[in-house]
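The pair is quoted verbatim as follows:
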Amino acid sequence: MFYGFLLLVAGLAVGVYLVFIFRLVPGAAEERLGVLEPLPEDIGEWHFDEASELGRAALARQQKREERLFFEEGKGMFAQGRLLRQVRYRNLVSNAIEDVEPDQSVKRRRIPS
């Protein structure tokens, strides 16, 4: 029983140590885990989507589907920021925004260094 408790405390200590090292030491996470892939060049720009199935369905409803990638900066000591896909639908005639889909988080891959 005592040895199980001792292993639990040791495991927690190693976990806390690794979290603080990866967050506070510059370059430690990139060296061990790899570097995140670069952000797209057209980040923040809306693009008209007519090629996808959803884009064609929107055109049939007299709407145009636009989407963009948006990087939301993280807040706080442990925040890294996240890449989001945002989609909106505009009226073809008045160009007014009629509908907005919920933001979708886009996972960025790590490139081994």
Observations:
- The chain has a mean pLDDT of 87.
- DSSP finds three helices and seven strands in the chain.
- The chain has two domains: 1-33, 37-113.
